[in-house]
User: Which sequence fits this backbone?
């Protein structure tokens, strides 16, 4: 690898590909074996790991590696992720032919700005600012074909992923669970579009084939808020139909990223869009990976619930889990868990890490990881 | 050693062998690496820079030398060449460590500078510095003048922990050099202290400097990236031990965003232990044993890194 300026970056700033140290063209098998290697390399009992960083960071690295593997081995999610970081793939003959449209560094930088604007913006603003002007050299604006970001084009999109992107706001857990249990076609009802759950018992291929459909189904009549359309520049659009859509998309991404560098408002936009995209991805992953969500005992989580420590504690208790058990299963240290539940923001790690902890925790509880982390971090931001 | 007959046109190479912990085989690696390099036709001078616990002469089976570093430092010897003694191996000479009881481990600053400067003028192919344990500034400064900073570690938690400590300390020492060189003391100070009192990663630091001065940030990053420690894992018993080197390199990259080179490993070998007891380099005593072969591989890798022009004509 050449000694470019953006090379020198720790795992927090790496793309999924960089994390797993695979090329963007890597096959699923290559990704899985890279993950296995990494898992072994960074295992908790590795002599190389324990002394270098604190255990929480090592856990964070492992969580990110897993996340990278999960997302990259799911064709849909990977496609979406690639689009987000600006990797363009041409589909042909069933073979994955890929080219990194912008060179990797800028793709990586896009990730930096887009994927974690939250943490970046909140903990070290100058970090992102310092990178953006470099990585996002002025580029000619993409030819626009009439649509603007604020004009929702969803109805026309044949390929919008399920409003997965819609953070599952307003979903009553019980309703969601009930939905989940209706396997197969039942899931194709409009309401399903709102909840990106793929029933585990359904064969993958079938799901994939149908996956793009529900997205088209306007999410009417559901108890869910419409997706924040203006805030979704990262939404993959028309990829299937317009060969140039990908390029345009990444341009758009880059533009929104450089806007983010320019002003607070713009930062907000980029942030929201990144979150929306990430939320989509994560919600899907969560749904797919945990094919058998634990059946939670009844606990009412109102649509507008704020996920504070108290609520997280109640969720945990409703699952019949002790702190020790959760700590063992998630590898989040017990003191972090206690501090989370007690809302002791000052004793918690920086947002970058806290976010990972919260997402990890939410996944363990079968909750929407992004909703939980976003909500909790918002509270922490307000009160600390 | 005879006075040099001709000018060397290629750059000299300095190799420093360090590691945070004592008893991990730094001296064994230095001595045998010296033998391996000399056998490839390079003119090598081994320097016992373990200022407080010199014993390189013992590893080589040389009787306690009459002339040592302290003679030069204290001006009893005028020139650094005057304290070079033969090692018994062709092409390999020795500058023995100080036998003084007092003050030897803590040379005054100007003494250290003089020593470093003079060592760097020696007309040889390889200057090999055997460092002491710990992370004192004396150790770090010797480590940092080297072209190849070789870090020895054992596949054991204590050793790995100290190795990281050593690398981090060297890294920050290097940062201090750069700070003077670029006259950016304030910037460095600011970056090191402004966020929660500590720098988390080098890349974060570079980002801060770059925010203040883009060109400088880039230059600094280039300099910091040049800091590539070369790893040697000693006393390897199992395949898992062997993997420790890869894991340390990977972890260093993931958590610090910096590269290391894994030069190779040396097997745990009773022959090596016997050779130490006999006060002979294992490469001389049993060149065919596994430990000796490990050292030879490492020497070859170093030579390869220096390019084709570096072996003796």
Assistant:
């Amino acid at each position: 690898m050449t000694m470019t300026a953006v090379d020198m970056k720790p795992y927090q700033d790496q793309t999924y590909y960089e994390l797993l140290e695979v090329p963007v063209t890597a096959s699923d098998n290559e990704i899985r074996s890279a993950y296995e290697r990494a898992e072994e390399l960074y295992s908790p009992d590795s002599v190389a790991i324990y002394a270098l960083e604190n255990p929480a960071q090592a856990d964070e690295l492992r969580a990110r590696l897993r996340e990278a593997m999960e997302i990259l081995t799911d064709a849909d999610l990977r496609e979406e992720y690639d689009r987000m970081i600006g990797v363009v793939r041409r589909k042909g003959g069933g073979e994955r032919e890929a080219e990194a449209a912008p060179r990797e560094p800028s793709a990586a930088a896009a990730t930096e700005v887009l994927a974690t604007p939250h943490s970046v913006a909140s903990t070290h603003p100058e970090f992102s600012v310092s990178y953006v002007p470099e990585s996002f050299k002025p580029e000619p604006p993409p030819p626009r074909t009439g649509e603007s970001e604020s004009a929702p084009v969803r109805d026309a999109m044949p390929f919008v992923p399920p409003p997965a992107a819609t953070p599952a706001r307003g979903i009553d857990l019980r309703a969601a669970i009930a939905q989940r249990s209706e396997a197969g076609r039942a899931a194709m009802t409009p309401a399903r579009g709102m909840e990106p759950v793929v029933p585990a018992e359904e064969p993958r291929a079938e799901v994939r084939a149908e996956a793009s459909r529900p997205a088209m189904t306007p999410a009417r009549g559901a108890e869910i808020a419409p997706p924040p359309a203006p805030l979704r520049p990262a939404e993959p659009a028309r990829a299937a139909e317009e060969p140039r859509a990908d390029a345009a998309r990444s341009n758009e991404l880059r533009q929104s990223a450089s806007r983010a560098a320019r002003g607070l408002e713009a930062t907000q936009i980029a942030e929201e869009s990144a979150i929306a995209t990430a939320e989509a991805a994560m919600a899907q992953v969560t749904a797919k990976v945990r094919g058998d969500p634990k059946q939670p005992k009844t606990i009412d989580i109102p649509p507008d619930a704020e996920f504070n420590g108290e609520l997280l504690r109640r969720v945990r208790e409703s699952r019949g889990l002790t702190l020790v058990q959760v700590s063992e299963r998630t590898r989040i240290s017990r003191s972090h868990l206690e501090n989370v539940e007690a809302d002791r923001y000052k004793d918690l790690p920086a947002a970058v890490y806290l976010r990972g902890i919260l997402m990890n925790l939410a996944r363990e509880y079968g909750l929407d990881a992004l909703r939980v982390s976003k909500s909790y971090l918002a509270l922490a931001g307000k009160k600390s | 050693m005879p006075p040099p007959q001709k000018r060397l046109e290629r750059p000299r190479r300095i190799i420093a062998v360090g590691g945070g912990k004592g008893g991990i085989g730094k001296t064994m690696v230095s001595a045998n690496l010296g033998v391996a390099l000399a056998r490839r036709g390079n003119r090598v001078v081994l320097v016992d820079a373990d200022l407080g616990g010199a014993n390189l002469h013992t590893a080589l089976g040389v009787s306690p030398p009459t002339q040592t570093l302290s003679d030069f430092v204290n001006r009893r010897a005028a020139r650094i060449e005057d304290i070079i003694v033969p090692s018994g191996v062709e092409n390999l000479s020795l500058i023995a460590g100080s036998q003084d009881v007092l003050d030897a481990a803590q040379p005054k600053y100007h003494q250290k500078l003089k020593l470093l400067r003079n060592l760097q003028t020696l007309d040889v192919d390889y200057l090999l510095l055997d460092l002491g344990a710990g992370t004192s500034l004396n150790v770090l400064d010797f480590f940092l003048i080297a072209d190849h900073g070789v870090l020895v570690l054992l596949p054991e938690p204590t050793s790995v922990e100290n190795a990281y400590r050593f690398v981090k300390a060297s890294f920050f020492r290097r940062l201090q050099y750069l700070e003077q060189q670029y006259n950016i003391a304030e910037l460095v100070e600011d970056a090191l202290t402004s966020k929660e009192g500590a720098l988390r990663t080098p890349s974060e630091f570079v980002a801060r400097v770059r925010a203040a001065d883009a060109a400088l940030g880039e230059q600094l990053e280039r300099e910091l990236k040049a800091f590539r420690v070369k790893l040697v894992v000693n006393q390897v018993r199992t395949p898992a031990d062997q993997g420790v080197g890869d894991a340390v390199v990977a972890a260093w990259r993931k958590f610090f965003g910096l590269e290391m080179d894994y030069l190779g490993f040396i097997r745990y070998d009773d022959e090596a232990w016997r050779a130490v007891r006999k006060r002979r380099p294992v490469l001389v005593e049993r060149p065919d044993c596994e430990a000796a072969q490990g050292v030879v591989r490492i020497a070859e890798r170093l030579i390869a890194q220096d390019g084709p022009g570096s072996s003796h004509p």
